[in-house]
């Protein structure tokens, strides 16, 4: 695939014969800034900057002078000889002081020396095209950059080190073995696939369907890792939902007032609970007799409730009619529910204990009592979303899920043909379709539009 793409020049991004450069650290003032260079002219360029041929992977302290001889900065320069570099090409990194003006002047000088600006994701695309990583590993680079929690970071590291690729390779090897068995009979049209071979292929296809299904089951967990666990706080007006949001966040994010219905729209903030990132959403109260404006807020609350992964249902412990609104009780969303009784600080020692469902957590958002128990329950609920798949944490993306769904459809068609003793040519065709679908995940297929779209979402310098 790589050779064919290079030969035909079908990828929209510029070719490997260019030497590229870009700032690899965020723009802005910092202690240091790092610029990357990659391409066939890298070694000659580094020779001119250092004044001698540098040793690979050895940091050199050098005065950086532009082509006119003007000193720009003293920098650290490291040369990486291909193929033992990130891109698989000759590459270099220049570390300068983190003054944006200095970094820009060095970058402009590199452009005058024959480099061109790198496109978004071009360094990682070159790494993929040179065989340094498969496509799932390339995607993991972005997951690593954007990881917001320990679990997201661990999953991204596993994928970057080939966790998904290893799982996929096992599927591909099994599929190739089954396809070889089927194609062995295609050249002999008068020969039917023997019953023993037919059953063996059926067993392999069944195993592939089962393993593919297990991988697809990790998609939702992948969404939670990348976007955060959508956690919705719901309840009647004035039960302390906004106070609870503020207590969990540790800051006064939401307005709090004794007047019911203060929150008319939802408020969303991110927070960490243990190893998990939560998208914490405070919603308008579910009033049994809402005013027109409240009704609009309640509509949005129900929408958030239907989309929730985790629901924190809050009731007022100081009210005798403790209970949850019917919208919460009858919610058809997929969320795990944690029942909470708030305002327990208003109960006196002689007050009768409020009746509540088993497992309800008693808290006071005002003084913080019970918050540690609630946080632990949230962490336990978040842990339950993880789908185990062997030793590696595999969490597929929407693109992976689409390819796996196509593979599943092709395998099911092949299975149907096998059990009805249909033509082996059709079986082989469906198995090849499944193989192509698996190949889309690792990038072992010639799909230039998919590659261009994927790498264009990367940041400059990656």
Give a quick precis of the structure.
44% of the residues lie in helices and 16% in strands. It has 462 residues and is an alpha/beta fold.
Description:
With 462 residues, the protein is an alpha/beta fold. It folds into 3 domains: 2-133, Gyrase A, domain 2 (2-Layer Sandwich), CATH 3.30.1360; 136-218 and 392-442, tRNA modification GTPase MnmE domain 2 (Four Helix Bundle (Hemerythrin (Met), subunit A), Up-down Bundle), CATH 1.20.120; 227-383, P-loop containing nucleotide triphosphate hydrolases (Rossmann fold, 3-Layer(aba) Sandwich), CATH 3.40.50.300. It is 44% helix and 16% strand. The protein is built from 16 helices and 12 strands. The strands form 2 sheets. A 6-stranded mixed sheet has the order 3-4-5-2-1-6, with helices on one face. Strands 8-9-7-10-11-12 form a 6-stranded mixed sheet, sandwiched between helices. Strand 10, helix 12 and strand 11 form a beta-alpha-beta unit. Helix 7 packs antiparallel against helix 15 (424-442), helix 8 (195-216) runs antiparallel to helix 14 (398-419) and helix 14 (398-419) runs antiparallel to helix 15 (424-442). The longest helix has 22 residues, at 195-216. Residues 1-14 and 260-264 have low confidence and may be disordered.
Residues in helix, %: 40-55%
Question: So what's the oligomer here?
Answer: single chain
| CATH architecture grouping of the largest domain | 3-Layer(aba) Sandwich
Provide the CATH superfamily of the largest domain. P-loop containing nucleotide triphosphate hydrolases
**Strand share of the residues?**
15-25%
Number of strands: 12
Would you give the CATH topology of the largest domain?
A: Rossmann fold
Rounded to the nearest angstrom, the distance between the terminal CA atoms is: 22 Å
- Structural category: alpha/beta
> Which CATH C-level class of the largest domain is it?
Alpha Beta
Low-confidence runs: 1-14, 260-264
SSE order in H/E notation? Answer: HEEHEEEHEHHHHHHEHEEHEHEEHHHH
What strand order characterises the main sheet?
Answer: 3-4-5-2-1-6
- Summarize the main sheet: 6 strands, mixed
The total domain count is 3
Overall pLDDT, averaged?
82
Radius of gyration: 29 Å
Which of globular, elongated, flat, extended, rod-shaped describes the shape?
flat
Q: Please, how many helices?
A: 16
